[in-house]
Amino acid sequence: MAKPDPNALHRLIYRSRPTLAAMADLDLVVSEIRTASIDRNRAEGITGLLLLVNLHFIGALEGKYIDVRNTYARISLDRRHRDLCILSQGTAGQPVFSGWNMCASAIAPADEVIIKALRTKADFDPQELTAASALRLLTTVAAIQQRASQAPDVAAVPRQPPHEADHEMAAFEID
Prior knowledge:
Layout: E1 9-18, H1 20-23, H2 26-44, E2 47-53, E3 56-64, H3 65-77, E4 81-91, E5 103-106, H4 112-120, H5 131-150, H6 164-171
Parallel strand pairs: 2-5
Antiparallel strand pairs: 1-3, 1-4, 2-3
Protein backbone atom coordinates (compact mmCIF):
# COMPACT_ATOMS: atom_id res chain seq x y z
CA MET A 1 0.00 0.00 0.00
CA ALA A 2 1.37 3.40 -1.00
CA LYS A 3 2.06 5.88 1.73
CA PRO A 4 -0.49 8.74 1.65
CA ASP A 5 0.65 12.18 0.55
CA PRO A 6 0.89 14.08 3.86
CA ASN A 7 -0.19 17.35 2.23
CA ALA A 8 -3.07 16.03 0.15
CA LEU A 9 -6.65 16.41 1.28
CA HIS A 10 -7.70 13.25 3.10
CA ARG A 11 -11.31 12.27 3.84
CA LEU A 12 -12.46 9.67 6.35
CA ILE A 13 -16.12 8.67 6.70
CA TYR A 14 -17.17 6.64 9.70
CA ARG A 15 -20.13 5.35 11.63
CA SER A 16 -20.47 4.71 15.36
CA ARG A 17 -23.13 4.36 18.01
CA PRO A 18 -23.53 6.30 21.22
CA THR A 19 -22.75 4.38 24.40
CA LEU A 20 -25.54 3.64 26.85
CA ALA A 21 -24.27 6.45 29.07
CA ALA A 22 -24.33 8.90 26.15
CA MET A 23 -27.89 7.91 25.25
CA ALA A 24 -29.08 9.25 28.61
CA ASP A 25 -28.92 12.78 27.14
CA LEU A 26 -28.07 12.73 23.45
CA ASP A 27 -28.81 16.42 22.93
CA LEU A 28 -26.24 17.31 25.56
CA VAL A 29 -23.73 14.82 24.12
CA VAL A 30 -24.08 16.25 20.60
CA SER A 31 -23.73 19.78 21.98
CA GLU A 32 -20.58 18.81 23.93
CA ILE A 33 -19.04 17.14 20.88
CA ARG A 34 -19.80 20.18 18.71
CA THR A 35 -18.36 22.62 21.25
CA ALA A 36 -15.17 20.61 21.79
CA SER A 37 -14.70 19.90 18.09
CA ILE A 38 -15.07 23.35 16.60
CA ASP A 39 -11.99 24.98 18.17
CA ARG A 40 -9.82 21.85 17.99
CA ASN A 41 -10.74 21.16 14.37
CA ARG A 42 -10.21 24.78 13.35
CA ALA A 43 -6.75 24.76 14.96
CA GLU A 44 -5.84 21.50 13.19
CA GLY A 45 -7.33 22.40 9.81
CA ILE A 46 -10.00 19.69 10.04
CA THR A 47 -13.41 20.15 8.50
CA GLY A 48 -16.28 17.75 8.79
CA LEU A 49 -19.79 16.96 9.75
CA LEU A 50 -21.30 14.71 12.39
CA LEU A 51 -24.88 13.55 12.17
CA LEU A 52 -26.89 11.57 14.70
CA VAL A 53 -29.69 9.58 13.09
CA ASN A 54 -31.47 6.43 14.25
CA LEU A 55 -29.11 6.19 17.24
CA HIS A 56 -26.03 6.18 15.01
CA PHE A 57 -23.36 8.80 14.51
CA ILE A 58 -22.36 9.24 10.89
CA GLY A 59 -19.32 11.43 10.44
CA ALA A 60 -16.87 12.77 7.92
CA LEU A 61 -13.47 14.32 8.57
CA GLU A 62 -11.36 16.19 6.01
CA GLY A 63 -7.86 17.59 6.28
CA LYS A 64 -4.25 16.52 6.08
CA TYR A 65 -3.75 12.77 6.50
CA ILE A 66 -2.06 12.87 9.90
CA ASP A 67 -4.58 15.36 11.30
CA VAL A 68 -7.55 13.28 10.12
CA ARG A 69 -6.02 10.10 11.53
CA ASN A 70 -5.24 11.77 14.87
CA THR A 71 -8.78 13.14 15.09
CA TYR A 72 -10.27 9.73 14.34
CA ALA A 73 -7.98 8.18 16.96
CA ARG A 74 -9.36 10.62 19.55
CA ILE A 75 -12.91 9.72 18.48
CA SER A 76 -12.13 6.02 18.82
CA LEU A 77 -11.05 6.64 22.43
CA ASP A 78 -14.05 8.85 23.23
CA ARG A 79 -16.24 7.13 25.82
CA ARG A 80 -19.38 8.47 24.11
CA HIS A 81 -18.76 6.34 20.98
CA ARG A 82 -18.89 2.57 20.48
CA ASP A 83 -18.94 0.20 17.52
CA LEU A 84 -16.83 2.47 15.34
CA CYS A 85 -16.55 1.52 11.69
CA ILE A 86 -14.57 3.31 8.99
CA LEU A 87 -16.72 3.35 5.85
CA SER A 88 -14.05 4.92 3.66
CA GLN A 89 -10.81 6.83 3.81
CA GLY A 90 -8.45 8.17 1.25
CA THR A 91 -7.32 11.12 -0.77
CA ALA A 92 -10.13 13.45 -1.77
CA GLY A 93 -9.93 15.61 -4.86
CA GLN A 94 -12.03 18.47 -3.53
CA PRO A 95 -13.16 19.37 -0.02
CA VAL A 96 -16.86 18.73 0.56
CA PHE A 97 -17.12 20.23 4.05
CA SER A 98 -14.76 23.20 3.66
CA GLY A 99 -17.21 25.56 5.34
CA TRP A 100 -17.70 23.36 8.41
CA ASN A 101 -15.22 23.04 11.27
CA MET A 102 -17.78 20.65 12.68
CA CYS A 103 -21.48 20.72 12.25
CA ALA A 104 -22.71 18.28 14.82
CA SER A 105 -26.39 17.77 14.45
CA ALA A 106 -28.94 15.49 15.92
CA ILE A 107 -31.81 15.40 13.51
CA ALA A 108 -34.45 17.28 15.48
CA PRO A 109 -38.13 17.93 14.81
CA ALA A 110 -37.13 21.29 13.30
CA ASP A 111 -35.41 19.35 10.51
CA GLU A 112 -38.78 18.28 9.11
CA VAL A 113 -37.52 17.72 5.58
CA ILE A 114 -34.77 15.34 6.65
CA ILE A 115 -36.96 13.42 9.07
CA LYS A 116 -39.77 13.04 6.55
CA ALA A 117 -37.44 11.76 3.86
CA LEU A 118 -35.71 9.26 6.14
CA ARG A 119 -39.02 8.00 7.52
CA THR A 120 -40.29 7.31 4.01
CA LYS A 121 -37.32 5.03 3.58
CA ALA A 122 -38.60 2.27 5.84
CA ASP A 123 -35.47 0.24 5.23
CA PHE A 124 -33.09 3.03 6.27
CA ASP A 125 -30.49 1.44 8.51
CA PRO A 126 -27.32 3.42 9.22
CA GLN A 127 -25.42 0.14 9.63
CA GLU A 128 -26.14 -0.65 5.98
CA LEU A 129 -24.81 2.65 4.61
CA THR A 130 -22.10 2.34 2.02
CA ALA A 131 -19.38 4.97 1.87
CA ALA A 132 -21.08 6.61 -1.12
CA SER A 133 -24.50 6.66 0.60
CA ALA A 134 -23.02 8.09 3.80
CA LEU A 135 -21.24 10.83 1.85
CA ARG A 136 -24.45 11.67 -0.04
CA LEU A 137 -26.42 11.80 3.20
CA LEU A 138 -23.88 14.06 4.91
CA THR A 139 -23.51 16.42 1.95
CA THR A 140 -27.29 16.65 1.52
CA VAL A 141 -27.80 17.44 5.20
CA ALA A 142 -24.96 20.00 5.09
CA ALA A 143 -26.51 21.71 2.06
CA ILE A 144 -29.96 21.84 3.68
CA GLN A 145 -28.59 23.18 6.96
CA GLN A 146 -26.42 25.70 5.13
CA ARG A 147 -29.44 27.10 3.31
CA ALA A 148 -31.51 27.05 6.50
CA SER A 149 -28.86 29.06 8.33
CA GLN A 150 -29.02 31.70 5.58
CA ALA A 151 -32.82 31.82 5.49
CA PRO A 152 -34.78 34.55 7.26
CA ASP A 153 -36.11 33.79 10.72
CA VAL A 154 -38.72 31.11 10.10
CA ALA A 155 -40.78 32.21 13.08
CA ALA A 156 -41.41 35.52 11.34
CA VAL A 157 -42.25 33.98 7.97
CA PRO A 158 -45.51 32.18 7.20
CA ARG A 159 -45.25 28.51 6.18
CA GLN A 160 -43.76 28.33 2.70
CA PRO A 161 -44.47 25.85 -0.08
CA PRO A 162 -42.17 22.82 -0.22
CA HIS A 163 -38.51 23.77 -0.36
CA GLU A 164 -36.08 22.36 -2.89
CA ALA A 165 -34.56 20.47 0.02
CA ASP A 166 -37.72 18.34 0.03
CA HIS A 167 -36.75 17.13 -3.41
CA GLU A 168 -33.10 16.62 -2.43
CA MET A 169 -33.94 14.35 0.48
CA ALA A 170 -36.69 12.60 -1.48
CA ALA A 171 -34.10 11.79 -4.12
CA PHE A 172 -31.60 10.52 -1.56
CA GLU A 173 -30.93 6.87 -2.33
CA ILE A 174 -29.39 4.27 -0.10
CA ASP A 175 -27.00 1.96 -1.93
